[in-house]
Amino acid sequence: MPESLNLLLVEDSEDDAMLTLRELSRGGFYVHHCCVHDADSLRAALMEQPWDLVISDYHLPGFSGEQALELVRECDSDIPFIIVSGAIDQETAVAMMRAGAHDYIMKDNLTRLLPATERELREAAVRRAQHAAEAYLRLAAKVFEGSIEGIVITDAAARILRVNQAFTAITGYAEAEVIGKRMNLLQSGRHDEAY
Predict the structure, then answer these.
(1) Half-sphere exposure at residue 66, Cβ-oriented, CA atoms within 13 angstroms
(2) 3-137 belongs to which homologous superfamily?
(3) pLDDT tens digits for 115-144?
(4) Does the pLDDT value for residue 108 go beyond 50?
(5) Are the beta carbons of 117 and 82 closer than 8 angstroms?
(6) Which of 37, 101, 108, 185 could disulfide-pair with 12, CB 3.0 to 4.6 Å?
């Protein structure tokens, strides 16, 4: 079954757009696309819906791939951005990559488009997963620090790795005093071992 792809195509040539779409379709993608050719229509399309990929020509009348990249990065820095151009020199291509483009492909060599697209979609998925994991960790840290319950994190040998503020307030131990110690430091000595 073809993989669905939401493609934002920045292209002024209908023929070149059709060649790009055909190459992706032949590669197994069901492509839903929007084709734009200036800053205003690009801005509007970026606000309209989320996109899996942006493919942009470099030379457009009154607009450039460099400007397109800048607008895309303002909207979402994780959308893969591939330059497909008929006339771009090596120096310009390298500058575009440094500015945040993920790849560049010459229009006369579209066979590279499919592997580049697949790679960039995989890498974008990894970036999204990393961002989600980082957000989850930030939330967990807020809960850990903001809890009014004393929380202790230990390793398998019951050595203390981390404590929250509530723990230090409840026990009177500073974090530096307990890190690396065993949990038995909290025993009062008033109860037998079974307790």
Answers:
(1) 9
(2) Response regulator (3.40.50.2300)
(3) 998 999 898 889 888 988 988 888 888 888
(4) yes
(5) yes
(6) 37
Rounded CA gap, 101 and 121, in Å? 13
Axis-axis angle for helices 39-48, 65-75 (nearest 10): 30
Distances (CA, A) of 91 to 57, 108, 182, 194: 16, 18, 60, 74
Tell me if 65 sits within 8 A of 96, measured CB to CB: yes
pTM of the predicted protein model: 0.70
* In the block, residue with structure tokens 């807020």: 142
The domain ranges of the chain are 3-137, 147-186
Distance CA 152, CA 135 (A): 22
Inter-helix orientation angle 14-26/113-146, to 10°: 80
Could you give the CA distance from residue 23 to residue 11 in angstroms, rounded to a whole number? 15
In tens, the pLDDT along 156-194 reads 888 889 988 988 898 889 999 889 988 887 776 676 767
